[in-house]
Design goal:
The protein is α+β, with helices and mostly antiparallel strands and about 525 residues long. It has 22 helices and 15 strands. The longest helix is centred in the middle third of the chain and has 15 residues.
Length: about 525
C-alpha cells in the first residue's frame, strides 16, 4: 500500500468511512439510502461526501429537475380556456369583431381582452385593421385544434405535475408561452445528488479499513483513569488548508488619515477642526479671494438655503478685510479695486477647502503656531474616475517670526519623506500665497513624477487683516489622490463603493509599498 493511500485512510472521518463502505456495497446508493442504512442524518452524509470529493476520492453529481404544476389561475384557464381561445371561438363564426365590442361578445373582461389581443397577434390567429379584429388563415387552422400551450395546459390539468425535462419538443414551446404569462405555472426545483467512486476511492476500498469510533479530544476523567490508552485517535493533517479569515480592519481612507495625523503630531503640530458649513467670509474673503472670483460661482460651490447666511466675525476684522479687498489697506497692495459686500460675505457655503480653518486659527491664536487639519470638503464636481463632489483635504500651517520659504521646503520634505515619498518642488501660482510651489512625488513603478499638493507663504493681504505680522507657511494635499497612489486605484469612486472583495484583499498594514 502506498504511503499516500495509508495516510489518507488514517485521516478519514468515521462518517467518510461509512459512506465509502455503502458505496462499495452499492455505488448507485442515494444520499437518502445511505443515511437510512448508516443511521446518519442527511446533512452528515452530504458533509462527508463533500469532504471526500475535495480529496478526489469520489465525485458528487448534482441533478436538478423542474417540476411543473398549475396555479389556481392556471387551473381556471384550463377549465374556461385561455382568453385568446375564447375570442378565436367567436371570430371563427363572426370572422371580425370591432375592438370596442370584443369584451362583450367573448364574455371576458376588458383587461383580459387587452392581453388576449396581444396573444392573438403573437400566435398570428388574428390581426387588427382600423380598430377591427379579423381572424387570419392561421387562426382558421387552429379553430378545431389546440396550440402547444393549450395542450400543456390540458395535460397539467389531468396530471398533478409534470417534470419539465420529460416534455416533448412541441410542449417545450408550450411551456415557454405559458411561462411568459404571470401566475399560471408553479415551478418547483427538485435537487438530487449521486456519487461516483474515483480511482483513489477504488484504491482505498481495495486496501480496506475498519470503522471505529475515534477520539478527537480528551477529557480530564479519561486522563485520570487511564482510559486514554485504549482510545483510537484520528490523525490530523497539519498541511491541510485552513479557512481564510478576514479580520476586521480600518477602511483604507481611515488608515491614511490616521497615518497623516500621526505624522503631524510627531512633528509637533496640534490639530484643529472646522465646520462643514462655513461663511463665505472665512471660506473666500479671508483668503483675499475677490467676491466676483470664478471659484465662487454656483457651478463650483454649494450654497445653502438653510441657514441662508452666517454671522460675520469681529467687525474690526471685517473692516480690515474689506479695506484690503478694496484698496489693499496697509499691505502695500492695490487690492482688487471693487466695492466689497458684507451680504456676499455672509453667504452660507459647504466649505470648498480646509484653508479657511487655517485663517480662522491664525485669527484666534497667537504665534508661534504649528497647526494641521484633516476634513471633508465639498465642490460641485461632475462624477468621473478622478473627481467627486465630496473628498478629504489635509492642511498644514506654521507661523513664527523666523519662518521663511526655506522652512516651507524643509517642512514639506520632512512630511513627504515620512509618508515614504521622494519629493521635488516646482514653482506654482495660488491666489493667497506667494512664493508658491507644487510638490511632486516620484513613483518608481511608473518612472514618473506625480503632482500631489500645493503650498506657499501666505500673502500679506491674508495675514495683515488677521492681525498677524509674522510670516506663515501653509501646505495641503487631497487624501483621495494619495489613496489612489497608495492602493493602485485607477478610479477614485472605488474608495467609496464598499467593494467587499477589494476591501478584504487589502493588506492590514499601510497598503502597497511604493
Amino acid at each position: 500500500m502506498s504511503e499516500d493511500i495509508k495516510k489518507t485512510i488514517n485521516e478519514l472521518h468515521i462518517y467518510e468511512k461509512k459512506l465509502l463502505k455503502e458505496l462499495e456495497a452499492n455505488e448507485n446508493a442515494t444520499p437518502e439510502e445511505i443515511a437510512d442504512k448508516t443511521a446518519m442524518d442527511i446533512k452528515s452524509v452530504m458533509s462527508a461526501a463533500g469532504s471526500l470529493a475535495s480529496k478526489d476520492i469520489i465525485e458528487v453529481e448534482k441533478d436538478v429537475e423542474e417540476e411543473i404544476s398549475l396555479s389556481e389561475a392556471g387551473l381556471e384557464f384550463a377549465k374556461n380556456k385561455l382568453p385568446e381561445r375564447r375570442i378565436l371561438d367567436v371570430l371563427a363564426e363572426k370572422k371580425e369583431i370591432h375592438m370596442k365590442d370584443l369584451a362583450d361578445v367573448s364574455g371576458i373582461d376588458k383587461k383580459e381582452s387587452n392581453i388576449a389581443i396581444g396573444w392573438l397577434r403573437r400566435k398570428n390567429w388574428a390581426q387588427i385593421d382600423k380598430g377591427v379584429v379579423k381572424v387570419t388563415e392561421m387562426g382558421e387552422s387552429f379553430k378545431d385544434r389546440l396550440g402547444d400551450d393549450e395542450e400543456l395546459l390540458t395535460k397539467l390539468s389531468e396530471n398533478r405535475s409534470i417534470i419539465k425535462e420529460k416534455l416533448a419538443g412541441d410542449l417545450i414551446d408550450g411551456f415557454k408561452k405559458l411561462n411568459d404569462r404571470k401566475n399560471i405555472l408553479n415551478i418547483k426545483k427538485n435537487t438530487s445528488h449521486s456519487f461516483r467512486l474515483l480511482d483513489k476511492g477504488e484504491a482505498i476500498l481495495k486496501q480496506g479499513f475498519t470503522i471505529q469510533e475515534q477520539a478527537t479530544q480528551l477529557t480530564h476523567q479519561q486522563l485520570k483513569d487511564g482510559e486514554w490508552k485504549n482510545l483510537q485517535y484520528r490523525p490530523y493533517d497539519i498541511n491541510a488548508e485552513a479557512p481564510v479569515i478576514f479580520a476586521g480592519k480600518k477602511h483604507p481612507l481611515r488608515v491614511i488619515i490616521d497615518e497623516i495625523r500621526e505624522i503631524f503630531l510627531n512633528m509637533g503640530f496640534s490639530e484643529d477642526n472646522g465646520e462643514y458649513v462655513e461663511s463665505a467670509f472665512w471660506n473666500f474673503d479671508s483668503l483675499f479671494q475677490p467676491q466676483d472670483h470664478a471659484a465662487r460661482e454656483m457651478q463650483d460651490t454649494f450654497y445653502l438655503k438653510n441657514p441662508l447666511t452666517c454671522d460675520l466675525p469681529d467687525m474690526d476684522l471685517v473692516k480690515r478685510t474689506a479695506n484690503t479687498h478694496e484698496t489693499g489697506g496697509d499691505t502695500g497692495s492695490m487690492g482688487w479695486q471693487y466695492d466689497w459686500s458684507e451680504d456676499v460675505a455672509r453667504q452660507s457655503v459647504l466649505r470648498t477647502h480646509t484653508t479657511g480653518i487655517s485663517t480662522k486659527h491664525l485669527f484666534e491664536h497667537e504665534p508661534p503656531i504649528k497647526m494641521f487639519s484633516v476634513g471633508r470638503v465639498f465642490r460641485r464636481e461632475t462624477f468621473d474616475y478622478k473627481h467627486l463632489p465630496e473628498f478629504h483635504q489635509v492642511e498644514g500651517l506654521v507661523c513664527d517670526k523666523n519662518i521663511s520659504f526655506q522652512n516651507l521646503l524643509g517642512t514639506l520634505k520632512e512630511f513627504y519623506n515620512k509618508l515614504g515619498f521622494e519629493v521635488r518642488f516646482r514653482p506654482a501660482y495660488f491666489p493667497y500665497t506667494y512664493l508658491s510651489v507644487e510638490s511632486e512625488i516620484y513613483l518608481e513603478e511608473k518612472e514618473s513624477w506625480i503632482e500631489l499638493g500645493g503650498s506657499g507663504m501666505f500673502r500679506p493681504e491674508v495675514l495683515k487683516p488677521l492681525g498677524i505680522n509674522q510670516p506663515a507657511l501653509a501646505f495641503g494635499l487631497g487624501i483621495e489622490r494619495l489613496a489612489m497612489i497608495r492602493y493602485d486605484v485607477e478610479d477614485i469612486r472605488m474608495l467609496y463603493k464598499s467593494d467587499i472583495k477589494w476591501l478584504r484583499e487589502l493588506p492590514l498594514d499601510r497598503g502597497v509599498e511604493l
